[in-house]
Structure to design on (482 residues):
């Protein structure tokens, strides 16, 4: 029987999960409305790239300073401010008269979402401990993945109901009622603000990450002046390394805690998460663009093709803990490998299958693609956080999310650039799918190395990291481990 503290923790977790659904569904639900948005606003390829990638960029860059401010000033007030910002600028974006307004609104909205989610991570860290914390973070990861998978299907329904001209505006407004409900729940149920630490922020380090991300995106957005952007990438990486070492030497905490950079499992797991998240977001975008712009499907029909992915992801996420219990970390390797196969299968299907049966064939591929993501995404995120050293546990979640969002921003701009500038829709889909598969090949290599590290640490007698447990509550009681 749950105690009063357990029930209070559960109510807090519900608010955190609601915030995750509200902010993470927002981007994926817009994906299927991009063709109608582009036509309605007469937006160019560059505008579309900024609309889809700007949200992730601002989201990711707001996570670390948001977490630092939450440590210093308490989380509840910042959670509410971030959510109000998110909702208000959702309305601004939905009512925008031109692409410029939508781009700016999405950037601000993404920053609000990042501020909210940094408080979500910090609140879970504050309220839950031990196995309960692992379980809560695992549930947050599952909710995030499922929300992203369900977005295109919901967007297709909205565009179908409202029509192409207004459908994309409805997609942007979908987050408003969700945000208002979450706002009311947060005001009533979140713990009162309390100071956790001084929360000193490595502002120069964060600036280097911003320059690195934008420099990585711009060649795909502009298609010109690649040399300058390469110099920006190299310069920001060098500056980031120098600043990191300087802050460590002077006793200050850098953007990425030194304990995290010294943890090979955390670094490799974060690389896997970046490749998984970036390729999943980009592959979803390319599929929707191909179905609507390439094959001329309606938004509702395109949503029907993507729906099997969402259903399969929900189902495989529900049983992922059983697979991990049987084969351990190899489950992530299995899911990543299956994802590669499905991306290649999708490219092959588009190349050889006749157009009349192509939607059915792609729906079958999407079914297996969703199962692969459900098997690998949330177990890998839970594994990464379990490997975070104790002295850096509080910032590990923010760094992981920031890495994923930065990867999404770069991948969305790159893959959409590949697609929007290709000669034919078929060639665009095939090339983009191959790039996404290449990203997952890198993730697969990291998974193999991680499995060897785990096996070596076990054979040396080192204790295993705690295993993810599915369920709810703060006491560690619940279902079997994931």
């Amino acid at each position: 029987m749950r105690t009063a503290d357990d029930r209070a923790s559960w109510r807090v977790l519900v608010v955190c999960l609601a915030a995750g659904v509200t902010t993470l569904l927002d981007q994926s639900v817009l994906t299927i409305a991009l063709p109608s948005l582009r036509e309605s606003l007469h937006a160019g390829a560059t505008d579309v790239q900024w609309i889809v990638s700007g949200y992730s960029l601002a989201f990711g860059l707001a996570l670390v300073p948001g977490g630092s401010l939450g440590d210093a000033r308490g989380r509840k007030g910042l959670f509410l401010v971030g959510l109000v910002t998110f909702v208000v600028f959702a309305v601004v974006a939905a009512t925008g008269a031109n692409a410029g307004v939508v781009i700016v609104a999405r950037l601000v909205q993404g920053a609000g979402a990042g501020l909210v989610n940094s408080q979500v991570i910090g609140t879970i860290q504050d309220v839950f401990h031990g196995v309960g914390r692992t379980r809560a973070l695992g549930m947050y990861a599952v909710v995030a993945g499922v929300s992203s998978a369900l977005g295109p299907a919901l967007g297709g329904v909205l565009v179908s109901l409202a029509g192409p001209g207004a459908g994309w505006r409805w997609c942007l407004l979908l987050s408003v009622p969700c945000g208002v409900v979450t706002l009311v729940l947060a005001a009533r149920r979140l713990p009162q603000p309390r100071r956790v630490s001084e929360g000193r922020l490595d502002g120069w380090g964060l600036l280097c990450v911003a320059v690195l991300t934008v420099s990585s995106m711009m060649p795909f957005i502009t298609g010109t002046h690649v040399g300058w952007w390469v110099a920006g990438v190299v310069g920001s990486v060098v500056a980031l390394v120098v600043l990191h070492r300087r802050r460590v030497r002077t006793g200050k905490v850098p953007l990425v805690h030194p304990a995290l950079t010294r943890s090979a499992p955390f670094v490799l797991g974060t690389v896997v998460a970046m490749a998984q998240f970036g390729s999943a977001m980009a592959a979803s975008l390319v599929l929707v663009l191909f179905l609507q712009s390439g094959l001329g499907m309606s938004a509702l029909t395109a949503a029907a093709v993507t729906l099997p992915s969402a259903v399969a992801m929900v189902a495989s996420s529900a049983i992922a803990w059983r697979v991990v219990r049987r084969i351990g970390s190899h489950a992530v390797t299995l899911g990543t490998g299956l994802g590669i196969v499905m991306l290649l299968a999708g490219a092959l299907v588009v190349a050889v299958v006749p157009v009349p049966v192509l939607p059915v064939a792609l729906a079958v591929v999407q079914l297996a693609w969703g199962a692969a993501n459900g098997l690998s995404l949330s177990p890998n995120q839970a594994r990464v956080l379990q490997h975070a050293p104790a002295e850096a546990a509080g910032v590990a979640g923010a760094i992981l999310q920031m890495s994923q969002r930065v990867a999404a921003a770069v991948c969305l701009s790159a893959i959409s650039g590949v697609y929007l500038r290709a000669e034919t829709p078929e060639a665009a889909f095939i090339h983009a799918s191959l790039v996404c598969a290449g990203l997952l090949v890198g993730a697969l290599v990291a998974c193999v190395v991680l499995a060897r590290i785990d096996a070596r640490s076990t054979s040396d007698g080192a204790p295993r990291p705690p295993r993810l447990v599915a369920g709810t509550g703060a006491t560690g009681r619940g279902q079997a481990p994931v």
Confidence is low (pLDDT under 50) at residues 462-482. The CA atoms of residues 204 and 215 lie 16 Å apart.
